[in-house]
């Protein structure tokens, strides 16, 4: 069915992004996978093209446009070429609401121009070695001393962990106050006592710097508190997680579509027993099933994007999108590996890399099980 989500401006922007990916990313990504990181220069080049901070007001160097379809175009084009090292989605889709909506004028002046130009790379530190799904179980603390918070603790699995200049750290400012005792603080590159640990070796997404972060008596100015009020962190996170989850769902559908297209082409050309493998009924039925499910997923996700733009996307809508599309992505890619035979296991084939890159999608941003909890709770049992 015809997709009617985008206007002409989005299509033009897609051309720009596609051209950027072909020129600045595709020729280098294999090397970045070996390096385990993407160079900062590529962030600056993307920033020059206006790829960051659409929602950043113009006076701070952004476009002042709150339209998630632009974010979606970037995610889709990044996924289409398998550039899983670029942490642009995290910066644009996940961090922008924190940096734009929760900052005061002084913070905006300090951070937003760099955010939009790609000179200040962002990250968010929620997860700790002992607490991921159970966010309230975090142990990082921020104790107020005059004009500073003294931050102690550790984070792990942090996307853009090595490259980031600004890390929104989730910390307990009042450990006795439960959900009301959590705050969000921006820890900046170079602050004394803030160190990076290992750039973690992952199953896939080898060019993405996913790292451990350590905070040892880091003195963070009170001026770096987000949202202007202590103890609001948990609610601020809950508010922003639907957009994060939708971004992951957008990536999931784009990845499933891309791999499916490649696989259909592969099945057309590969022969066995004197005919194209696409002529086997098993192949056609399997591709028919996958194509049906992916198209249904596409329309639900597009609808969610419209709902987000209209400020109507609920946590339950986003949870449904996140778990269903990422589980589907894994199923589609796994089945497509099978249709490639032995070649599907060779990293020179995009399907093999997609298989490795996709596995994490049902885990980060809230696991499938946590998504089902969110949906299940809405029944009010
Ligand atoms: C590549 C990568 C990038 C990441 N990037 C970031 C990042 O930028 N910032 C950040 O803060 N975090 C990040 N994460 C962390 C990610 O969000 C967590 O790994 C995820 O939320 C799960 O937490 P956990 O690993 O502690 O697993 P756990 O919470 O220990 O879960 C283990 C298992 O128990 C299940 N489980 C837990 N609770 C329940 C329950 N109530 N009911 C049923 N089942 C349950 C889970 O579903 C899972 O299957 C990243 C992780 C990866 C792998």
TrEMBL record:
All residue ranges annotated as the Acyl-CoA oxidase/dehydrogenase middle domain in the record: 123-218
Record key words, sorted: FAD, Flavoprotein, Oxidoreductase
Gene3D superfamilies per record: Acyl-CoA dehydrogenase/oxidase, N-terminal domain, Butyryl-CoA Dehydrogenase, subunit A, domain 2, Butyryl-CoA Dehydrogenase, subunit A, domain 3
Pfam families according to UniProt: Acyl-CoA_dh_1, Acyl-CoA_dh_M, Acyl-CoA_dh_N
InterPro entries per the UniProt record, alphabetical: Acyl-CoA_DH_CS, Acyl-CoA_Oxase/DH_mid-dom, Acyl-CoA_Oxase/DH_mid-dom_sf, AcylCo_DH-like_C, AcylCo_DH/oxidase_C, AcylCoA_DH/ox_N, AcylCoA_DH/ox_N_sf, AcylCoA_DH/oxidase_NM_dom_sf
Domain Acyl-CoA dehydrogenase/oxidase N-terminal: 8-119
Cofactor(s) the protein requires to work: FAD
Domain Acyl-CoA dehydrogenase/oxidase C-terminal, chain residue ranges per copy: 231-378
Family: Belongs to the acyl-CoA dehydrogenase family.
Name of the molecule in the record: Acyl-CoA dehydrogenase family protein
